[in-house]
Structures are given as C-alpha cells and as structure tokens.
C-alpha cells in the first residue's frame, strides 16, 4: 500500500506536515511545544495522526495515538479502508484503524472477509502473493521498517506496489477481534516464521503468556529442550513473560518460570537465548536468581552483561542489596559498554539506601562521555539523596528538544531533591 498527498486542498499545520514527512524527531519536538501550551489542541494531534496514516508512517501514527490523537474523530474517507490495511501487511496500521472509536465501524461479516484475506496473504507468503497481484518477475526490493513503537516488519516493493510482511500478525489480531481462539501450536508457528524483532513474534508471545495454561507452559518447556537456538529463544521469551505478567511472585506459573529460567541459565550456550533467560530473572527477588545472574557477570557478550546489570539490586523492599550484588553493580558501572553502565546505574538507583560505594561510583559517571549515562547518574544520586546530583543536573541543562519525556523524568528527581533540601533549610 502507498498513500501520499494532502486531502483536497487543505492547508496542513506544522505537526501534520511533519507527520506526513515521516520526521519523528520533529513530531516529538512539536508535541513538546504543544504540551507547554494551554489548552491542548487535540484536533491538531488527530489531524497529524490522519496525515501519518495517509503517508504510511505507522510508527508516528502509533506514537500520536499514545499522545492523545482520537481516530474516532477522523472522517472515514480521510483514512484507508480496513481492507487496504489488511492488504498493506502493516499490523500497526490495522491496529490504528480498529482502535478506540473505530472498531464499531466494521460489521462482523466484513471482519470475517478480512480474516480470510489476511489468511490468503499469510498462507501464500508475502512475496508470492505480491508477485501474483503485480504479475512482475523482477527482483523484489526488501527493507526493514519500524511498524510501531516496539516492533519492526519487512517491507517489500515490486511492480510499483509496496507491502509489509505482517499478515500473520494481522490474521491473529482479526481472530482475536472475532473471538476465535487460535491454537497454541498455530500461534507459535506464526511467531517462528519471523524473527524476535517482528510483530508476529512479540504478539504471539504476549498472547500466549496471558493464557496462563498448562498447554502453553508445556510448549515453552518443549521449546527449551529444542536443539535449534532460534526455537529455544522463543521458549525463553515465553517463560520470561510468564514471570513478568504474573499477578504476584507466588503465582504458580511465576514460580515455575523462575525455577526453569534459573536452571536454564546454567547450561545455555547461545548468547541471545541466555540474554532472554537472564532478563526473565530481572524482576524476581531471590538468592538463586541472583546467583544465576552473578554467574555471568563477566560474560563476553554485551547483551548478557546488560541483562545481568538490569537484574541485580531489585530486592522487594527497595533498600537491601547483598554484598555480591553490590560488588557486581560496582563492576558493571565501570563496564566499557554504554548500555551496561546505564543498566547498572539504574539498578543501583533502585536500591536508594545511600550506600556510599554506590553513590561514589555514580558520581564518577557524572563525567561520562555519554549524556544518557550522565542523566542516569544524576537520577540515581537524587534517589540516594546525594547532593552531587544538583550541580550535575545544572551542567546537563534542560531536556533536549525531542527527548523531553525521557530526560525530564531523570532530571526532575534532582530538581525535586534540591527543592526539598532548600525547604528543610528554611524550616
């Protein structure tokens, strides 16, 4: 699917124009400027959402939905039809057109027809169906694109037609909308047709983990024992999510997941699988899980060390840290990889007990060459109520345009600490 151009002679505002151009950074900057004004012009965001959809910038449309755009206020003729969305192969476009205020526009009979259309694309294969429709025997141009905030999909162009390869994910969504329960085996098969960054993979893992059923758990255990590391990776993701979405650490499947992941971590040799296994332990408090993380403290793969750094120091009371975990975080805050230092600094911040060794290590990171690391250090010091955060926050200055949301959160902790300190001094 390809759409372009303005709706009938209408002069667009700056936000809609940036959305139509696909300029994500500019869209974020304009939204930040709009957030500083009162009252908020929600119609402006809705118009920008429509422009992003028309130009097939689905990641921007997804972000605008989260920032207040109301698709229900968009006229039907200003958006692609749902059939076009299914043909496009973009799960994000399909979600945008079936979200709040829009789903009731489509009768059940139409949704069933579109399910059959999505199944045709999925079973034939995106390239084969694209060739059938275009009649072209030329080489297919392929690229990878961001489809929504979290996932990417493949994009194929042939004979002047461009589609994305998310038809399997769209099929699963349509089945869900229609109340059709897709089998565990089929959802896993659809996921394994794609890689771990694809919507089909993430969607299947999330749906299955929410079922909380023995059938799904048995499938995860079977994947864990598979010789193919790609299949083991999906099994690890299922177990990780079983633990993550549990209502409590006492829930049956959470206990099963932590025990399995802990055992698994000792023998897994594939770095990607091991990374996911360790992330599955990152929100669980317990000595066995901590020992499993620490066993990989010096792993040669960056992803594994990042998982270790993210998991250490997450005790239930927010104050306790074992001596071994403390030493591990001190080591990882000195890691050569930027993301490892960031993860370690975040874990150290969560402890928030004023530990001098941890605060001194974070203070060293105030001179880190990477701004993101310095921001994390400021935030961590503020949570530990260490006054060194104040001057460091001033040196960083205000949040950068286009990054206000993430940077403000970290700087605000230092500003709040300074305000409370001055308030105490006056009383």
What does this structure look like?
By secondary structure, the chain is mainly alpha-helical. The protein folds into three domains: 79 residues, Serine Threonine Protein Phosphatase 5, Tetratricopeptide repeat, CATH 1.25.40; 131 residues, no CATH class; 184 residues, Leucine-rich Repeat Variant, CATH 1.25.10.10. Helices cover 62% and strands 4% of the residues. It has 23 helices and three strands. It has a three-stranded antiparallel beta sheet with strand order 1-2-3, with helices on one face. α13 packs antiparallel against α14, α14 runs parallel beside α16 and α15 runs parallel beside α17. It is globular, with a radius of gyration of 24 Å. The N and C termini lie far apart (65 Å). This is HEAT repeat domain-containing protein. Pfam families: HEAT_2 (PF13646). It comes from Streptomyces toxytricini.
What's the CATH class label of the largest domain? Mainly Alpha
Number of domains: 3
Strand order of the largest sheet: 1-2-3
Distance between the termini: 65 Å
**What coarse outline follows from CA principal-axis ratios?**
globular
The proportion of residues in beta strands is under 5%
Under the CATH scheme, the architecture of the largest domain is Alpha Horseshoe
- Using only C-alpha atoms, the radius of gyration works out to 24 Å
CATH evolutionary superfamily of the largest domain: Leucine-rich Repeat Variant
Are there runs of 5+ residues with pLDDT below 50, and where?
Answer: 1-9
The percent of residues in helical segments reads 55-70%
Protein name: HEAT repeat domain-containing protein
Pfam family, one: HEAT_2
Organism: Streptomyces toxytricini (Actinomyces toxytricini)
């Amino acid at each position: 699917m390809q759409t372009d151009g303005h709706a009938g002679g209408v002069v667009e505002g700056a936000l809609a124009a940036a959305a139509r151009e696909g300029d994500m950074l500019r869209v974020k900057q304009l939204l930040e400027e709009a957030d500083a004004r009162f009252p908020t012009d929600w119609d402006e965001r809705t118009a920008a959402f429509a422009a992003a959809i028309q130009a097939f910038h689905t990641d921007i449309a997804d972000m605008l939905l989260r920032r207040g755009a109301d698709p229900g206020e968009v006229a039907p003729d200003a958006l692609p039809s749902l059939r076009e969305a299914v043909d496009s192969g973009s799960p994000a476009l399909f979600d945008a057109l079936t979200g709040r205020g829009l789903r009731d526009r489509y009768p059940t009979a139409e949704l069933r027809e579109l399910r059959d259309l999505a199944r045709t694309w999925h079973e034939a294969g995106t390239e084969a169906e694209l060739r059938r429709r275009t009649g072209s025997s030329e080489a297919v141009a392929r690229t990878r694109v961001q489809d929504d905030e979290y996932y990417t999909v493949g994009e194929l162009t042939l004979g002047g037609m461009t589609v994305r390869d998310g038809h399997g994910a769209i099929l699963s969504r349509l089945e869900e909308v229609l109340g059709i329960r897709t089998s565990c085996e089929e959802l896993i098969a659809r996921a394994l047709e794609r890689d771990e960054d694809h919507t089909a993979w993430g969607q299947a893992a999330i749906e299955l983990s929410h079922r909380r059923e023995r059938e799904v758990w048995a499938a995860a255990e079977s994947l864990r024992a598979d010789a193919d590391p790609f299949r083991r990776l999906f099994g690890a993701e299922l177990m990780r999510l079983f633990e993550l979405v549990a209502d409590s650490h006492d829930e049956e499947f959470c206990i099963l997941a932590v025990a399995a992941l802990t055992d698994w971590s000792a023998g897994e040799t594939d770095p990607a699988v091991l990374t996911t296994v360790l992330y599955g332990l990152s929100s669980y408090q317990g000595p066995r899980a901590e020992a499993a993380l620490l066993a990989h403290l010096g792993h040669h793969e960056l992803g594994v060390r990042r998982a270790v750094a993210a998991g250490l120091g997450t005790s239930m009371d927010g104050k306790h840290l074992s001596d071994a975990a403390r030493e591990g975080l001190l080591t990882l805050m000195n890691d050569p990889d930027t993301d490892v230092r960031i993860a370690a600094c975040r874990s150290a911040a969560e402890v928030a007990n004023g530990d001098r060794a941890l605060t001194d290590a974070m203070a060293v990171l105030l001179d880190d060459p990477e701004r993101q690391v310095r921001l994390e250090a400021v935030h961590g010091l503020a949570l530990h109520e260490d006054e060194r955060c104040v001057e460091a926050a001033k040196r960083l200055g205000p949040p950068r345009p286009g990054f206000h949301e993430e940077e403000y959160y970290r700087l605000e902790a230092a500003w709040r600490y300074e305000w409370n300190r001055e308030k105490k001094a006056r009383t």
